[in-house]
Amino acid sequence: MMELKKILSGIKKVLWPLSVWSVLAILLTSSCQQEFEKTIPDKMHNDSVDVTYGKPKVLYIIADGIRGQSIQAIEAPNINGLLNHAIYSWVSLADEQATQPGTNWASLFTGVAKEKHGVIDNDFSTNNFDTYPLIYERIKQADSTTNIRVFTTSSVFKDNLTTDTDESQLVADDDAVKSAVVTALQAENVGFITAHFSNPDKVGSAVGYDVSKPAYRDALIAFDTALGDMLNALKERPTYQEENWLIVVTSSIGGEYPISENDNTVFSNPVANTFTIFSASRYNRRFVSKPFIGNRFQGDFARFQGQRYAELETGDNTVYNLDTGAFTIELKVKKNKAIKNIYPSVLGKRPEWSSGWASNGWVVFLENDYWMFNARGTGGGDQVKGGTLADASWSSVAVVGVVRDGERFVRTYTNGAFNTEASIQGWGNLDTNAPLKIGYINGNGHGEPDVYVADVRVWKAALPDDVIARYACEIGVDENHPYYDYLAGYWPVANDTDGTVRDEGPFGNHLTMTSDDFSYDRLNEYLCAPTTADLGSQVPRTFDVPTQIYTWLKISRQENWQLDGRTWLDQ
């Protein structure tokens, strides 16, 4: 702005005649036109997709029964040759419950999970393709001239997944699939080819889905060789350089085989382990690896199962009342079985845990796949929802009572991430004479827990979000903690096998086990592992493939399609 003022001031001082300005404008315009003409060739250009980028086409190759970790292990030359210009993963995921490829075929062609498309294993009788059509129908709606061809060895595949195609062939074996694709690639107008291979699955079901089995290894090598023949045929097309091909190579399902390291997540399910490659000449190389699944938490832990509990029999129980002020409760929980609305208590301080929340006090309990905080005081009570708890691994849970502008709120966190906030101003004083308990709290209308509990911390302050996030997935509390002076109790609940749960906080309020019938188990599990849903979203899944293809073909995805898949970028 100051420069502009100086220029304007200079113009006013000079007061050039209008004619001079006119001459300058003509000269500047002439100069700009000359520079502009230098950048634009004489030849007129058509800005259509066909000319500028090449007409987008797709070669879609699906193999049943190839585990991603197995195909990675053999270092297949033709598959590896695609990777410099590809988005790829050896840990992509099929549906975790599927035992036959049909469920995943449906996802690979609709872009939605089985809960929407309705195909269970190889049973297509309950399919919902009217609501969630196959990708071929969407492509034809966008461009009816697209020439679509499908080649498969499966009659189930052909009968259910090849509508709206220009050609679909049921052939004898995988070699015939390869030959049919090579022939189809010689047609000038072909725009979308699907090749479905089944031999790796047949061999794997007979001998095992692992490269340590020679027959299975040979089946993977044969698939890679067939891939090489198809890629060579693609590159030999006279118009290949002017075209714009996306090559998708993926497996619909993995296969059963004992694995050496089980992390208790979906990534240790060999049936769900697939591989996915999106390859195109304009893609940069991007490898999508197995996501971080948490830190190891190991030790000897008491199993709070049935009516087992630990309580504060001697010591100052009033320290753990929540009264009307600020507080923070933190703990680690590992559930041992699915919870189905039985509301088992995990940690609390109230005389009973019964339907209708009859007594004052507070409790952390489980419901479905998440956790809840419930409390009642002199003015009433209610509950605040926490987050989803991962199966078969430890989760960090936190409840924070904070006072802002004279109003009291409860905030919940799972693995350091904020979940929910609710006002509890009307609940009144939450004090109770009941002892602090880990595990079962007597009552009616609520079930019995089956959990491990550890690293329990109670604070007489509202820990802020950044402190919760920083320490949620760490074990232990020491004097370097920024709120150490507000620590009211800290029970590791690990390696205590003598009937006592020791308090390493400032008051030494040790808890006593109900009896000597506790079982103590040596655990070495992950802490703060994402849920299966969260983990799955971090790698390609079967229903992501149609979304990737729509993006490549420049087909605008509509919100009412309700696609579950995402588009993967090469950076």
UniProtKB/TrEMBL annotation:
Q: What Gene3D superfamilies is this protein classified in?
A: 2.60.120.200, Alkaline Phosphatase, subunit A
Query: Which residue intervals define the domain DUF4983 in the entry?
Result: 479-569
Task: Return the protein name.
Answer: Alkaline phosphatase family protein
